[in-house]
Design goal:
Elements lengths: L2 H7 L3 E4 L11 E3 L3 H6 L6 E4 L4 H9 L4 E4 L7 H10 L3 E3 L4 H10 L10
Parallel strand pairs: 2-3, 3-4, 4-5
Antiparallel strand pairs: 1-5
């Protein structure tokens, strides 16, 4: 699934990475504990989170996440977005909760990080 499709499914706003909407993702996961992200095989995946700190962007980069989606309409501060921009890490913002955003992606065929349906 392309990031542009994720944007449409989640009715999301692009905060960073307008030029990367054709990037394909391999799966998705939701977490507010960044240790959970690091323990998963998240390469090329979507990270859905309600945590809006620089730590999220740094962790996503370490885990080789393809795109970060902030949920519940929680908009990060400028330093978070600047860090994402410096890493060329696309960042989206959706009004949906973590649960609903995950469900919408799942219903549209995106697999979880463990490969399950």
């Amino acid at each position: 699934m392309k990031i542009s499709e994720i944007k449409d499914i989640l009715k999301a706003e692009i905060l960073v990475g307008q030029d990367q909407m054709d990037v394909r993702v391999s799966g998705a996961g939701g977490a507010d504990l960044m240790a959970d992200v690091l323990s998963a095989v998240a390469k090329g995946a979507v990270l859905l989170t309600g945590l809006i700190t620089e730590h999220v962007v740094r962790t996503a980069r370490l885990a080789d996440v393809a795109v970060v989606v902030f949920v519940r309409g929680k908009k990060p501060d400028l330093p978070v977005l600047e860090l994402a921009r410096s890493y060329r890490m696309p960042v989206l913002l959706t009004e949906y909760s973590l649960f609903v955003a995950s469900g919408r992606l799942y219903m549209n065929g995106l697999r979880g990080l463990d490969g399950s349906w």
